[in-house]
Amino acid sequence: MKWPNYQLDKTVSKANEDLTLWQTERGIIRIGKNTLACPIGLDGQQVGYVFHGHYRLLLDTIVETNEGAIGKPLEKEANTPFLMLGNTERVRQHFSVAGEGDFLENGLYVSKEEFIAQAEDLLNRFLEKERAYGHCHVRKNDSLIFAFQNENGRLDILVAEDSKLVYKAEDTFFVSNENKVVLKSLGQVVCASDGRSVIIKR
Length: 202
Description:
Elements: E1 7-8, E2 13-15, E3 19-24, E4 27-31, E5 36-42, E6 45-52, E7 55-59, E8 63-65, E9 68-70, E10 74-78, E11 82-86, H1 89-92, E12 95-97, H2 100-105, H3 112-133, E13 144-149, E14 155-161, E15 164-168, E16 172-177, E17 180-185, E18 188-193, E19 196-201
Antiparallel strand pairs: 1-5, 2-5, 2-12, 3-4, 4-7, 5-6, 6-11, 7-10, 8-9, 11-13, 13-14, 14-15, 15-16, 16-17, 17-18, 18-19
């Protein structure tokens, strides 16, 4: 299988306002105003961003079973670089070119070059993870892939495509597709579908 040759654009943008990157009944990802954004290109087209600024991730990873609700919502707020691959047309209009002062203003970087170096490092780590474990890449216009750095410096992955959602972190694996849900965490695996459920203790 030939892996996509993603490359970073050297033009850095910033968000002109608070912005929702993804939202469904299962969750939401938002970034704050002035978040820095380095475009990712593929075959001459823009296909994503590496962001750095305040972001908030909310996921409903609760599974309804015959024994009651299992799991709890996932909520994460951070100010670390993360990556998004997918159709950028909807959000692109909310960005403008970042000036040198924008890198100093938030105290994250001393220059554009420093931010680009961090963005390249994150993109390379993501691609290495993809090649090693065979995760999917964006295949459809409405598909989105996010890669967040966790507290241990590793990457948590969220993939959203149509009604399907996959979230993989160090201690959690969650899949939701319409009324079918699988949750693996806290020493157990929970599967639910059409009002029926199975709980496997490990």
